[in-house]
Amino acid sequence: MTTLSEYITDLDEGLAKIILAVSGTTDTIFASLPHRRGAAGTENIYGEEQKALDVWTNDILCEAFKATGVVKAIVSEELGEPWINPEGGKYTVSIDPLDGSSNIESNNLFGTIVGVHSQDELLVPAEKLDVAFYNLYGPITTLVLASNKGVTEFVKHRTGSTDYHVGKENIRIPEKGKLMGLGGAPYKWTDGVNKFADYLKDEAKLKVRYGGAFVGDINQILYYGGCFMYPELVDKPQGKLRLVIECGPMSYIIEKAGGASSNGRESILALKPGEVDERSPVYVGNKDLIAKLEEILKL
Ligand code: AFP
């Protein structure tokens, strides 16, 4: 069975180093999860000052990125300001180190989202990404990678060779979607969003699946088709999710798999971020459903 490191040998060497930097932290993160559910400030079983898990995870990932020698900047939910490598480098990495951190306590899905580009500017539209991938901590640990080879799932083995091995190649979102993941409190949905939710329910006749972690909710859409949204809200017209570290990379993956994304008007991939923590409404899934969304919101 092909391992992750074998599979990515024909990617640019720097990209492969960044991908392996993340996959190489999985065992450490996974092993510590049961002992790091406590709030920051308490002591963990090692008697160490308990950092919030997302801060601790961020520290581990940032050190791994810096060790590659090819990362010139890191944009992370947990870094106030982006880290800029004084020695330069080829790639800018954006990460949500622990997407779905509120799911840890309830032992629900969560993961790490990564976007990588080699443009001069720090913030670029997601269409300029070289690769995007995520680690998903569920009943098994998987890594889903969108690259010039398509969308590929790798499965983390726990016995024998504990490397990631190719699970599914050339993943395409199913033509006929089955699921709808509807984020945000429904009483805060705008009229347009309510109309779209009614369409998904009454016309498309989709089933509700919502797990509270973008990485897991998008993974479901990748496998079963349908639509995920964290929409515009009456009090948050830009929604909740961050364009650079969440919406961009995950939309890149879904579009590479034959789906579509939108902020309500245009593809997420076309949006030029103005600042690191800019938020965007996000709708991703089957092309026909996203087209219907944009039609409804235009009314
Ligand atoms: P946390 O990382 O704080 O748990 O938030 C997760 C998230 O950013 C994203 O992964 C989910 O899609 C969304 O927020 C869930 O938000 P709600 O808690 O409002 O449903």
Q: What are the low-pLDDT stretches, counting only 5+ consecutive residues below 50?
A: none
**What is the beta-strand fraction?**
15-25%
> Radius of gyration in whole Å, from Cα?
19 Å
Helix content: 25-40%
For the largest beta sheet, what order do the strands appear in spatially? 2-1-3-4-5-6-7-8
Q: Shape, please?
A: globular
SSE blueprint:
Blueprint lengths: L3 H4 L5 H11 L2 H7 L20 H16 L2 E6 L6 E2 L6 E9 L10 E8 L13 E7 L3 E7 L2 E7 L7 E5 L10 E4 L8 H13 L3 E2 L5 H11 L1 E5 L12 H14 L3 E3 L19 E4 L1 H12 L1
Parallel strand pairs: 1-3, 9-10, 9-11
Antiparallel strand pairs: 1-2, 3-4, 4-5, 5-6, 6-7, 7-8, 11-13, 12-13
Helix pairs in contact: 2-4, 5-8
The chain binds 1,6-di-O-phosphono-alpha-D-fructofuranose.
1,6-di-O-phosphono-alpha-D-fructofuranose binds next to helix 6.
Key phrases:
299 residues; alpha+beta; eight-stranded mixed beta sheet; 8 helices; binds 1,6-di-O-phosphono-alpha-D-fructofuranose
Written overview of the protein:
With 299 residues, the chain is an alpha+beta fold. Helix content is 29%, strand content 23%. The protein is built from eight helices and 13 strands. It has an eight-stranded mixed sheet, with helices on both faces. The longest helix is centred in the first third of the chain and has 16 residues. It binds 1,6-di-O-phosphono-alpha-D-fructofuranose (AFP). 1,6-di-O-phosphono-alpha-D-fructofuranose binds next to helix 6.
Brief rundown of the structure:
This protein is α+β, with helices and mostly antiparallel strands and 299 residues long. Helix content is 29%, strand content 23%.
